[in-house]
Amino acid sequence: MNKSEEFWDKASKNYDKTEERFEYIHLKSREAAKKHLNSNNIVMDYGCGTGTTACEFSNHVKEIQAIDISSKMIETAKEKAVISKVENINFLQTDIFDKRYKEESFDVILAFNMLHTVPNPQNVIQRIHELLKPDGLFISVTPCLRDKMSFLVNAQIQLVRILCKIGIIPVPIRRLKSLEVEDLVKTENFQIIETKEIYKEASSYFIVAKKIYKK
User: Fold this and answer.
1) pLDDT recorded at residue 187
2) What is the pLDDT of residue 155?
3) What is the number of other CB atoms lying within 10 angstroms of the CB of residue 48?
4) Rounded to an integer, what distance in angstroms lies between the CA atom of residue 195 and that of residue 185?
5) Does pTM top 0.85 for this prediction?
6) Which of 64, 173, 196, 215 is 20 to 30 Å from 202 at the Cα level?
7) Triad 11, 12, 17: Cα angle to 5°
8) What is the pLDDT of residue 15?
């Protein structure tokens, strides 16, 4: 187990509780994403956490492959699915570079609150492009930690940055702007078809992008 997995395993115990203050952002993000889903979609939920989003979307799509590097997050997600009687989600502890996932396998790939924490976001976007079917959709929401936020959230972010620097939090937390997120997606042959800035004490940037090919 690497340090990142260990960190997220520990975080899983109180993850849902710590996210409650941002429920408005999560709610608005899920509402916006649902408009782009249909009952024939095969979906990957990358970085599914405790499975809240996957369970909520399960009635809107055909199948969801929900993945996370934390085994404890996956355990909690499976419990939620059982309680909710959801049967079309396959929860698995792995990452998006798992070779079991073949190119052009998914209609939609979700990455909610992920891109600011991965070691190499450009590689992740490239992999998402590979895994999507022609005209497949990439739907993401990313905390933009260089955009508008409340004083309290800003103070928390500064504390997190210090903890990252001294190694207590072994996760690369990036302070992105919304335009930087757009540029990241556009670089990898995606056409952005919808954006939305969602704010409640902190800014999150919602993007829907369609896979395109180089000419």
Assistant:
1) 80
2) 65
3) 26
4) 12
5) yes
6) 64
7) 90
8) 84
